[in-house]
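I am still getting used to backbone structure tokens and would like to learn alongside you. To get us started, please write out a protein record for me. Once you have written the record down, we can walk along the chain together.
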Amino acid sequence: MPELPEMEALASVLRDRAVGKVVTRAEPVAINALRTVSPGPADLVGATLVDATRHGKFLDLVFAGTGGERLDLVAHLSRAGWLRWKDSQPTTPGRGGRGGLAWRLVFDDGSGFDLTEAGTQKRLAVYLVRDPAEVPGVARLGIDPLDPAFTVEALAALLTAAGRSQVKGVLTDQSVLAGVGNAYSDEVLWAARLSPFAPSSGLSGDQVAALHEALVGTLRAAVEAAGGLGAADLKAEKKANLAVHARTGEACPRCGDTVRQVSFADRSLQYCPTCQTGGRLLADRRLSRLLK
């Protein structure tokens, strides 16, 4: 799933390539992807892109309509969605099919982008609104980890409020922290040398400080690594820089121990026993506990 660094990079691509361009076609190819009714896609035709930004894992394209009114095209790519920029879009209407095309936007110079989604679980969501706060997922977002207001003290307060909840779950709760998902939470916890199942309120002051440093540092490094890359190269860049996530069975790059996995019904996490759990293995079941 695209997370904060990838969404920041995609927004940057669109700012560089599309700001100032006028929409000539807005095509909701997969009707189930469009989650709003009014404004409609026709209202985008003639609108000018004035900015591209993000809210956590939501991409927000800000348009000025033909009457100067604001329109926001907000997209959540979910687990298998992606944005594909094209310098020259097809002149024929888009169709769904093997490519998983969900949405197509074309600008006045013929360029544009497609939103696509692989797999059978169609969760990609597009919202056309006049204020991004109208999108339920945006409205409930917690603080952005790259916001200057996200201090060590702010993180400590969030962890205390979470009580005995596992720190992995707190990091990925979008109502607590905006933009961190399964992959980067694994990376952050590895960098901070913390078990994913450590109780949030049980962390010491030093551990909270280490977690804050790892969280901000990991995300900033990923944003910088993705800077300047085209949308087509972002997935490979992310994968190349992961230390433990999706690297089950490989050697930990810090200590050489074998990276282990805990599987759940629809996802998994990876960790290093030596670096994060004192050498103990985590039980591979939903309600995992440290094996004694």
Observations:
- The two ends are 33 Å apart (CA to CA).
